[in-house]
Amino acid sequence: MEACQDEEFFAILNGGHIKTVYQPIISLENGSVLGYEALSRICLSECELNIEQLFSIARRVRKLWELEKLCRTTALETAAKKVRRSKLFLNVDPNLIHDPELRAGFTHEKLEEYGLNPDDLVFEITERSSIGELDVFTASIEHYQKQNFKIAIDDFGAGYSGLSRVCTLRPNYIKIDMELVRNIHEFANKSSLVGSIVKFCREMDIALIAEGIETEAELDTLIRLGVNYGQGYYLGRPQEEFTEPSIDLKLAIKDKQNRASTFERQLSVFGTIDSVCRHEEAVQAQSQAIRVYQQMQQDEQIREKFVLNPDGTICGILTRGYLFERFGGQFGYNLSIKRSAEQLALRCFLQVERTATIDDVARLAMERGASRVYDSVAVTDGGLYCGTVSVRDLLMAAISIQVQRATQANPLTGLPGNAVIQGAISSALKDSRPFSVIYLDLDNFKAYNDAYGFANGDRMIKTVADTIRTCCRDDDLKGHIGGDDFVIVSSLCQTDAVRMLCDRIVFTFSESMRSLYNEADWEQGYIISRNRHGFTENFPIATLSVAVVANCRNTFASMEELSQAVAEAKKKSKQISGNSIVSI
């Protein structure tokens, strides 16, 4: 069997029976082409090998360089025909990237022969490949980056070294492993993980590419999570020609992007009924009820009409079922034909202000009696009618909020993440409500994590989260930014009340610390660990630095001003040894 495969391998290699197909990599913001991944395919008739087997045999018979060179040369021969300003992603084995012959094949002169320049090329290095000499490999990557070539880490999330390799290499692109993309819309843990990768890449200034997008639902989720680019059969299959996305696909991506941006802004920042309210024409009180009945006969989509007083307030509701009952029967029509909308209107309806939260309105709507539970909800602004929300839209919005909260929750603590925290603060700033932001940072956590291990480090993080849950009120937003940083957004604003809450948190946390240390370390009051420079040092028992900013003493015109105040309070708090609370 092996001998037959080897024979086929050499027939392919010596005969040059390799062709290249190009799969587009698409912007998930506007549908434009970022570039194309060059994928090698075997074109020897009646060959039973696939491309993965071909490379496996090449490694075994020590012909990897020759096969890689054949695939690269074939890919570059038609590269000049690619879409203008797009990039060509070339798969390169990391154990060959430092080879002098590879460097020689990518000089400016060689590239000019193909009508290319270094900025056009992206070396795609798989995360699944082991690397023999890491120092040499890293130096080679730096060489190519200095020459203006770009680097991509492929199969991220499925390889050996994960984030450590990314931090070392500082690539231009990361490609998420397709196993994380597959059915991502059905798994909250996948969404949460990809959301964390999105945040990491933004902070590191790395563009993120999702591979293996095969369905519209996967695309929708990736756009909502903020992934930059996508690749997969749903966006474009590998072709021998350089294809561009259709106009329909570009428009669909733009539409999804717009809806995702609006959805996030509405649900995570405002979260009020105003964000899902639709203006529906109401009926004036003195209008004839028969006209409303006739409208409903002609248009099956009209389920109800709210009836307004002359001053714009709501006096009642006319529902489809109720009107058809009043105008039906042997005498109903004659009895109701001269009645006004006000005279027939039902006085039992749900009315809420536009600033009411979606969660609260959904609860109120479901608490209505069975006969009224499916009536639309009237939305008012200062008591004046401004629109309606159907029960379907209301429940869909409420479910979407719950799903969003679940996907944005920190996987370790289950507390809401940065997007929800910022949304709560933005909403409080917008509505000028009294509030305080309490920022909590663990001191000496890294030293504890290094000395006691990641499992115990996770226990300490969970202890902080449990402390916050225990000490805070139900309506306080308790959030976990990530790592050892936590934020509380509370409606408490007065100095004494906020200070009492912070003191309770610090006391409860301190009481919980004893169980996380061994007896010797606890008695001596410190642990021995290495600092960031690698030298041994004594680190005190973990404490909390608490920074408090409240708007009852200060006015903040923007999120930026508030953030600066929090940063200032945090800096002062960190300068104090032990547990500390600093308020601004």
Map the helices and strands.
Elements: H1 2-15, E1 18-27, E2 33-42, H2 51-60, H3 64-77, E3 87-91, H4 100-104, H5 108-113, E4 121-126, H6 134-146, E5 150-156, H7 163-169, E6 173-176, H8 178-181, H9 188-204, E7 207-210, H10 216-225, E8 229-230, H11 247-270, E9 283-284, H12 289-298, E10 304-308, E11 314-319, H13 320-326, H14 329-336, H15 341-344, E12 351-353, H16 358-366, E13 377-381, E14 384-389, H17 391-408, H18 418-431, E15 436-443, H19 445-452, H20 454-471, E16 477-482, E17 485-490, H21 495-513, H22 519-524, E18 526-530, E19 536-540, E20 543-550, H23 559-574, E21 580-583
Parallel strand pairs: 2-3, 3-4, 4-5, 5-6, 6-7, 7-8, 9-10, 12-13, 20-21
Antiparallel strand pairs: 1-2, 1-8, 10-11, 13-14, 15-17, 15-20, 16-17, 18-19
Describe this structure in words.
The structure is a single chain. With 584 residues, this protein is an alpha/beta fold. It folds into three domains: 2-268, EAL domain (TIM Barrel, Alpha-Beta Barrel), CATH 3.20.20.450; 275-396, CBS-domain (Roll), CATH 3.10.580.10; 409-583, Reverse transcriptase/Diguanylate cyclase domain (Alpha-Beta Plaits). It is built from 23 helices and 21 strands. An eight-stranded mixed beta barrel has the order 1-2-3-4-5-6-7-8. A five-stranded mixed sheet has the order 16-17-15-20-21, sandwiched between helices. A three-stranded mixed sheet has the order 9-10-11. A hairpin with a 2-residue loop joins strand 13 (377-381) and strand 14 (384-389). Helix 2 crosses helix 3, helix 9 crosses helix 17 and helix 19 crosses helix 20.
